[in-house]
User: What shape does this take?
Amino acid sequence: MALDILLLGPPGAGKGTQAKRIEDDHAIPQISTGDMLREAIASGGGLGRQVAPIVERGDLVSDELIVAVMRDRLERSDTRDGFILDGFPRTIPQAEALDQMLDSIGRSLAMVLEFELEEDEAVDRLMGRAVEEGRTDDDPDVIRHRFVVWREQTLPLTEYYTEQGVRVALDADQSVDEVYEVIAAELQQRS
Ligand code: AMP
Assistant: This one.
């Protein structure tokens, strides 16, 4: 059975780092919509030019656009045994679209891991990352805006997945290794 996992949580909670570890240990791909959009922007094509100003402001690109991108991505053969979603869905309509896409291929999310982290701690981490990686959406004003967007548009997913009975809360205010230990134990129960 495919292992379809979703990582939820605020920006800066460590989802990308943990997704890469899961990818290494379980041979299923990390699918990061943020990485995909940044690549599209770097390559300078039509999609990149369309989304660049939105990403730079810290707003969300439209549900329609991101669902289309994700539909293409999930059709690739490397997702056959499962995937780790990181950064999608970010709105209720995106979550509903994902449910439909999975349903149409007879699959469903095995687990939604929600990374819980105080906003102040997450902001501190993002400020550090801004220095290290030079992401243009990691400047202080944009970071604060991304949190407003996250609270308004993405936080409702907590309830959505709690109701589905697939949500597992995770204390993300621990070291990378400690967080991964918890994730590994949860995954062992499901794979
Ligand atoms: P991330 O690296 O996941 O923080 O994503 C960086 C930026 O890409 C976000 O601030 C949004 O502008 C855009 N983005 C990534 N994923 C999505 C999504 N699922 N829906 C809408 N916009 C997204």
